């Protein structure tokens, strides 16, 4: 498991490296002193896990996550206990208070291993591809994104998102029982999402094909799709033809 440490304290980073050294399956692939440095690092490496401080010069750890289009699993490491609830609201794996104890770190790493083991390995089925810039790499269903709507935050795996829908100049994201709004256009999302999983049904909606529950013919040779957990989506005539081609043998 590859790990990146983000902390403004050199001593804290050194201590975490030392603690991680006793776990043979853990490799520290980089360190950053603040959010800006972490963003640059995460543009070049894709670790499995982020050990992230909250209070840093400039932006907080939460603000760093909010700026990332995709993020690895996160364990917060901080000297402050008042942010624990907020940390778990963004679906962090764990929240470790400094000084970090070996036993607590071991338990947090066990959670990371368990969650990683539960995910399919995209490399096992994907054909080799030529290297591309990180900015053009599609976000797959296994990627995790940070979503913020006002004071509420979520850490969401894209496999859990069933629908993106235009709403009053924003895009609404459907996952679980939540419907947050983000300041992104569907055109931007269509360019960033893996087309093998996410399909542009019409001008207003992008659906996750793995959430399709039923399909029925609709007016003028179009289709109507019901997603598990709702809602129903009417596919435009042009996209209905593309949908049939996409899913036919």
UniProtKB/TrEMBL annotation:
Keyword Transmembrane recorded: no
Residue intervals of the Response regulatory domain: 2-113
SMART domains linked: LytTR (SM00850), REC (SM00448)
GO MF terms, alphabetically ordered: DNA binding; phosphorelay response regulator activity
Pfam families named in the record: LytTR, Response_reg
Keyword annotations from UniProtKB, A to Z: Phosphoprotein
Entry annotated with the keyword DNA-binding: no
Chain segments annotated as transmembrane: none
Domain HTH LytTR-type, residue spans: 147-249
Organism domain of life: Bacteria
Location of 4-aspartylphosphate modifications: 53
Protein name, per record: Response regulator transcription factor
Species the sequence originates in: Hymenobacter lapidiphilus
